[in-house]
Model the fold of this input.
Amino acid sequence: MTHARHHIPHVVAITSVMLCAQLFAADPGLETLDSRLTKIVRTARGQVGVSLFHVESGARLFSFNGRQPFAMASVYKLPIAFELLTQIAKRRLTFDQLVVVGPSDIRACCTLSRRHPNGGITMTVGELLEVMITDSDNTAGDALLRVVGGPSIVERHMSALGFTGIHVNRYEGAIAFEMMGVAEPPPEAAWTLDVQRTLIDKVPLHDLLAARARYTTDVRDTATPDDMAAFLLKLQRGELLPAPYTELLLDLLARVKTGPRRLKDRLPPDTIVAHKTGTTAVVVNDVGIITLPWNDSGYTGHLALAVFVMNGGRASAMQKVISDVGAAVYESFTGRPLPPPSRPARRARP
Done:
């Protein structure tokens, strides 16, 4: 296994390795973790990327395709939320700042497009943040991306922090048109929900499939598993935001409603998983922080885990890869066997 080296000083890196060795010595189940995870990812269909860090030691315990870029889908709302909270912490923005959401600002999925398909609403930044993370709402995502200054602002901040493998390049509306094969969308002012659906419905099947193939090879709006897991590690450690904003973001992530059959699927119901999912027809992702329970030796801690799956067939099959990874990690750290997966799996949500 390899160990973390992302912005960790030499002395700290040595300490991390020692702590990791102590973890393995304390729990024999960890000795087989690498082989268990390797078997899961190598037998899965499509492309799979996994990166696992132990937060307290900083040790990277597993990486498979860790430096390969994967389409984030709605996982990219996590760096948007981070940028928003950074600007609020610096008093450039406020939670009660009002944002007008017009007819051309509505995006397909999820809460806001159902409740307000024609727009014409005003919401606070805080309200948009809540629905963007917990419901993975695309309208809220695009609205807040505009509020923080656009994709380039988020991109530069990620790069400045050393997360050069995390990219936010486009608005959700533009991603959706490209991914669905709409070659020449109208000006953004005309992007009503009806227009979006009409244009997408007119795309021939062969153009749609070609567009999806391009989407999973496009480097825009992607993340490497290693950088995403490292980002989560630093978030949990409180190294990215002041404490109140760290707690707020982790609380939002712990209340995410999407992806119940992914990282959380087979874990005990009381397990805290602060996570963000992402879904398209050809992508199923889940990245998050798992809070470990006390084990027999009294040890507890957190795991930062990123799992990306592309072109793996049915959504249920791609979700199972993520569920199996989460279960293997939990069992290896706790020594507690988990129930086998139940089927049939529920339909994937963004």
